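FW: tagging you since you asked about this chain on Friday. Here's the raw sequence from the shared folder, copied in full. Didn't touch anything.
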Amino acid sequence: MAEILATLGRLVGAAGFLMAIGAQVLAFVRIAKSDKENGTAGAMLALIVPGYVLYYVWRSDHKMPGVFRCWLAGFLLFLIGMFVIAAAAEM
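HL: got it, structure written out here
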């Protein structure tokens, strides 16, 4: 039972990780297309630094609530996966 739970935790964690990374890439593409004054410098920070994407998606000139929701859902799935793996290790 613990092996199945650990595998499930790994799958949920990997899905969350990929979802958060996908949201960061989507934010990078949207910011790079629309940000003419900074070019891709600010967008590269949103791609590389995980928390920096939160700053960019809530700026007044770059409102992207869909990207934020996707990133947040992926991050929460990743955390849930890590908790499930930790719980499986205790069994």
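FW: The radius of gyration is 16 Å.
HL: agreed, and The chain is about 80% helix and 0% strand.
FW: great, closing this out.
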